[in-house]
Design a protein that fits this description.
By secondary structure, the chain is mainly β. It has no helices and 11 strands. The chain has an 8-stranded mixed beta sheet, with no helix packed on it. A 3-stranded antiparallel beta sheet has the order 3-9-8, with no helix packed on it. The chain is globular, with a radius of gyration of 16 Å. The protein binds 2-acetamido-2-deoxy-beta-D-glucopyranose (NAG) (3 copies).
Length: 146
């Protein structure tokens, strides 16, 4: 069950920026919202999703004027390969949301959606929590299973 709530983040009492919280259960899909908030097309723009990690930021997804990971681009973090998709039909509405399929607990963390074409860059924040669920994991632990 996807659940999204809004959080008001106050940084040093001066800047207030909206951050979204997304909570899902392990194994389900998570949609991370990001939108310019007007209806201007971003088909010819760039947006870059990164995740804060212990060893710096991980590359989650990049869309660059029609190219993206899996189509004409590489450099995506191994953890996200083949699991992250944008919404092609939504680009014309300025919507840079992505879906992470088949989430794992390690996907939990803070994500930033960056539009580098703007000066200063536009950034949006999403905090994803993937809940561990009890299930039979014996099939995952068979030695030698690829
Ligand atoms: C964007 O387009 C939708 C659908 O046409 C409309 O409902 C919405 O009000 C528009 N938003 C802005 C910010 O123009
Ligand atoms: C962006 O697209 C996603 C996927 O269709 C949708 O869930 C979300 O509501 C859209 N966001 C806006 C602001 O329209
Ligand atoms: C995500 O960011 C919030 C606000 O900056 C912070 O309180 C929280 O600890 C971060 N979560 C993780 C998993 O890093």
């Amino acid at each position: 069950m996807d659940q999204t709530v809004l959080l008001l983040l106050t940084v040093s009492g001066i800047t207030a920026s909206m951050s979204e919280i997304v909570v899902v259960e392990e194994g389900s899909d998570a949609t991370l919202p990001c939108s310019l908030g007007n209806n201007d097309s971003i088909k010819q723009k760039v947006f870059d999703w990164k995740k804060d990690g212990q060893e710096g930021r991980q590359e989650v997804f990049i869309y660059a004027r029609g190219d993206y990971y899996g189509k004409g681009m590489d450099g995506q973090d191994q953890q996200f390969r083949g699991r992250v998709f944008h919404f092609a039909e939504e680009l014309k509405n300025g919507n840079a949301s992505i879906t992470i399929r088949d989430t794992i607990v390690a996907d939990s963390g803070n994500y930033t959606c960056i539009f580098p074409d703007f000066d200063p860059h536009r950034k949006y924040y999403v905090w994803l929590t993937v809940h561990y669920i009890l299930k039979d994991r014996s099939a995952e632990n068979i030695p030698g299973k690829s």
